[in-house]
Write a structure and sequence with these properties.
mainly beta, four-stranded antiparallel β-sheet, 2 helices, globular, 378 residues, six-stranded antiparallel β-sheet, Methylamine Dehydrogenase, Chain H, single chain, 3 domains
Length: 378
Amino acid sequence: MSWAWPHRIWTLGLALAMGLSLGAAQAHAAAQVHAAAHSTPVSDLLVTAAKPDQLFIIDAGARAVRAQHHVAGANGQIFTIVLSPDQRIAYLLVDRMERIVGIDLGSGREVFRAELSTSGERVKDFFALMITPDGKELIAYELPTRLKSSEYVVEEPRFAVFRTDAGLSARPVRSYSAPRRIHMLLARPGGQSFYALGFDLYEYDVKSGRLLGTRGIQKWALEDHSQPDLLAFWPVSEPTGVFTSPVYSELKKSGGNVPMTALMSLNLKSGDLSYADFEPLSALIFSTVLSPDKKHAYGVYTTLTSINVEGHRVDKRVPLDHTFYAVNVSSDGHEIYLGGTNCDVAFYDAANLEKKAILKLPGCGDQTLSTLRVIRGR
């Protein structure tokens, strides 16, 4: 998708708001896009959300909010953000994790809605949803509870599949059983299967729901290591197609156990899964992202850490102004983007970890656990 697409839509909307006719507005928008394309370099666009119900699109190069959309019915917070393959629609988990909506990024119009709960069943989706690579289906991880007159009955979890063209009254077209304790879904690029990440890593067939394989996370087979732990709520695999996460365990030694931090890497195309210790535990990391050249991973929480992937070591670590939960990286690998928690998005130099800019979001609502996504500049 060209960077010019969202710029054209937003410029067209502004021109119409100025009272121009549709033809004049279209000409004005085209002129603005042409001028932007020839006067400024192509820039990434960032997508994030903040309490209680705001969705933001940020021009990373200009360090400016390009658009701000109100998400009706968010009910206090926007959780997981997943982009459609053409990067025109953001699918958002909202309303206490009981509703999924699709928002057109250009207009802010709601184009999809799935109410997970019904009058007799309360359904939560604990962060985990994904869009199939062809953009035609959305898969959600549902935790249902049957609401009886005198008791609540906890039911078995399931994957529910929705058509993305179902409009504002989407209902599942099929569902199949799922394990407990899932908190992330990741689509494989071929479209035939997807990963469900939890205490272990599961792979399922998209059409039938058949379990294709299970690999250990808590039941990993890493020699001389204790059972691991990880916190993985941010389903970021861009720009490399590799999902990474910090993993914590204890290395068993004769003189006593040593707490260690490892980098988990899952290649969504090949299926390769690896773990590699890179330091004795010295700083907590919430989430990581892999650089475009796959030579470094960047981790974030109270510090920003540059991890040498091939050397299995920390190259550099710098303190942050406050905690950040979410991290992403620019298309060219030159900048690191930080979000989550407070109302600011931070921009850091990927080479030396120097802070380059801070952008305060209008209204200063907390981003909390929202995903920080990147629309790639081209």
